[in-house]
Amino acid sequence: MKYIKTGLVLLLMFILGLGLFIGSGRYNPGADSPHWKITYAILRSMRERSVEHHASEVALPANLDDAQLILKGAGQYAAMCTHCHLAPGMKNSEIRPGLYPEPPNLSKVTVDPREAFWVIKHGLKMTAMPAWGIGHDDATIWSMVAFLQKLPGMTSAQYHAMVAKAPPDDDMDSMDHATP
Questions:
Q1: What is the DSSP letter of 132?
Q2: Contacting residues for 145 by C-beta, under 8 A, at least 6 apart
Q3: Strand, helix or coil for residue 124
Q4: What are residue 129's DSSP bridge partners?
Q5: Residues 6 or more apart whose Cβ sits within 8 Å of residue 165
Q6: SS3 sequence, 125-144?
Q7: CA–CA distance, 22 with 109 (Å, rounded to integer)
């Protein structure tokens, strides 16, 4: 019983201390001020494990190697992803240095297709990764995933040639809410 009381007192002290810290406003939420190493490690681990868990339920379509699907994904990627995730030959973008954590350069890393689908569809809190599934259907998201499977190792010339052949981006038209 003594250990339970001690544990409860310690827990209460921790909660009060945390409340005082939060209420003080001393935490710097600026994207130009990195997390403490332990905070970053915890958040990264939680994000990676959570994405892996949720993505494990995603069923892969059989057509990820379809050339037309990949072409559509190339156009989607060029329109929506390059400013943060870069393209072959891109060194950086105007927005990328200000993002924390810095997004992966998808032209240099291979991503699991299930995890890529889940992240593209649902986004990631506190990373600037939007939930593209709000305005795009699953078929469009799968086209981006299909393209991501081909992107690593692609040269700048190959990338630009593929984007030039990509079909028009009809999905972006449906997202335009401006009135004439």
A1: G
A2: 64, 73, 113, 116, 117, 120
A3: strand
A4: 124
A5: 71, 74
A6: CCCCECCHHHCCCHHHHHHH
A7: 37
Cα angle, residue 179 at apex, residues 177 and 180 outer, rounded to 5°? 140
Q: Give the phi and the psi of residue 129 in degrees, each rounded to 5.
A: -80, 110
H or E stretch at 122: helix 113-122
Preceding amide of 168 cis, omega within 30? no
- The answer to whether the beta carbons of residues 96 and 103 sit under 8 Å apart is yes
- pLDDT tens for residues 81-99? 999 999 999 999 999 999 9
pLDDT tens, position by position, 114-123: 999 999 999 9
The pair of structure tokens assigned to 134 is: 């709000």
Q: Which pTM was predicted?
A: 0.84
3-class DSSP state for residue 129?
strand
Q: How long a stretch of residues is the chain?
A: 180
Amino acid at 141: I
Please give the DSSP secondary-structure letter assigned to residue 65: T
Which DSSP state fits 101?
S
CB 87 within 8 A of CB 155: no
